[in-house]
Amino acid sequence: MSSVVAQGGWIAGLACMLGAISTGASAQGRAPDFSSNHAGWVATSNDFIATGDAHKPVTFDPAYPYVPNNTGKQATYRIADLADSNLKAWARERMRRENEAVLAGKIAFTPRSSCMPAGVPAFMLFIVEPIFFVQAPKEVAIIYSGDAQVRHVYLDQLHSARPKSSWYGESVGHYDGDALVIDTVGFNEKTYVDNYRTPHTGKLHLVERWHLIEDGERLEVKFTVDDPDTFVEPWGGIQRYRRVQESMTEQVCSENNAAFFDYHIPIAAKPDF
Length: 273
Description:
Layout lengths: L1 E4 L4 H18 L11 E5 L45 H15 L27 E5 L3 E6 L4 E7 L14 E7 L2 E7 L19 E9 L4 E9 L8 E11 L3 E4 L21
Parallel strand pairs: 5-6
Antiparallel strand pairs: 1-11, 2-10, 3-4, 4-5, 6-7, 7-8, 8-9, 9-10
């Protein structure tokens, strides 16, 4: 993967300009400020944290504990715990087949390892590289610097009557006190909702609430997922981020990757010129 600091580019300039707009709004008490002073936010958990007041996110099978990298132990792939009765039969069966394939030696790829758009809520599971916020009066852009994936949140608007399906869906939001509330619909069915490759349908509906905690040193997002064709009932989760002070970097995920493992990285079959 290639990584260089983006200096003097249009993204940095736009971030500074719109960050100034956001800071002014925050000073007047109209919006929380997630973007001033080159603040970036690094996710602190490999998996979603259960909220305690909703169905839990999918987690690993206790018989096959998940061990991430950099723990001093042998890392493992995720094997989903399918004892959760909140999954509809078709989703449970698809994930059962995935579990069996991974146990038989298949690579358990994630959106990040395959260089594919994550969709949401899986976007919140991108770790290591920070996310950055660009806050403007009519839009908030949330940028993951790992491979410049961008979420666009349009403020104080209604959803389209018939949103066109897309990887990240149609997100509309508003500020509620010290929080940014985001409502997203209009997803395609090419993404997963987590790193266990839990599927979803086009009926996926996500509501998020982002707010600062611990005197602004941490950022927390609490969310609810509803998809009546995949889950018996809505479920919820939490992700937390730690503040970092650094410039946005440019990283091209699939650049110069050799196909040592089957991570499902998209490869062009023929030149596009």
